[in-house]
Amino acid sequence: MEIIKDFKDYEIIDASNGQKFERWNDVYLLRPDPQIIWDNGNLEEKYKGKINAIYYRSNTGGGHWQNLKPTKDSWTVNYKNLVFNIKQMGFKHTGLFPEQAYNWNFMIDKIKISKRDIKVLNLFAYTGGATVACVSAGASVVHVDSSRGMVEWCKENIKSSNLDFNKTRFIVDDVVKFVKREIRRGNKYDAIIMDPPSYGRGSNKEVWNLEKDLSNLVTLCCELLSDNPLFFLINSYTTGISATVLNNLLTIAVDKKYPGKISCGEIGLPIKNNNLVLPCGIYGRWESYE
User: Fold this and answer.
1) What's the pTM?
2) Which domains does the chain carry?
3) Helix or strand or coil: residue 288?
4) Helix or strand (DSSP H, E) at 227
């Protein structure tokens, strides 16, 4: 498992009974996490007086935040030279997955080492953690997400990180439809990133099902790779999908045409107060030998 230990503005302090107590810069949140099935005490009682906000799930779906202390609508966290805007979103999210720093580090290093102009396609791009990382390394990025709000949030992150807006093209669209149009246009990319949800809907209510649709999307994306691609990275939080599955997809779809190095595995975050590790999804990547 790859463990992120150098995110100074973020840490999981404790975890117990389906909850994690986190520090986001100077804001302390208590949020649910289904992976935390162990009992390490009642976190609400343990950290009473220190928690800024708690997210409570509803029995009928969704949930709500309860602010115990005055909390800004938005604040920032830094990871190295990257700056991200954090907000309390519906369904417990904050707009950033800190464990993705592992993938950001890989992308930044790969782009910088290449010493050439790199064009990146970021699909299901969310608030743009990977987009910000790639632009910071000197790449140009096409950022695609079906949610206009998420695309606008990425623009905020680009601005906060003092990066060049001209290096990013922002697209609000269904990912599969966009990829098919890019194939018809003959556009090519040196690197492709995707972070597909388990289920989702496109900008025009197109239905996405990872288990049914991911293989086809990866195959389609191979038609967008340049003659000298740098990397192809898939990230997933879908329960029941093994990292080896992503390895197999990349072996069949990418490595046959572009022999390179394939790796896969879990990503995790350390839990400060009990020396445990919280698993936070899987990755699979193909990369050139460059």
Assistant:
1) 0.94
2) 2-72 (2.60.40.1180), 98-287 (3.40.50.150)
3) coil
4) none
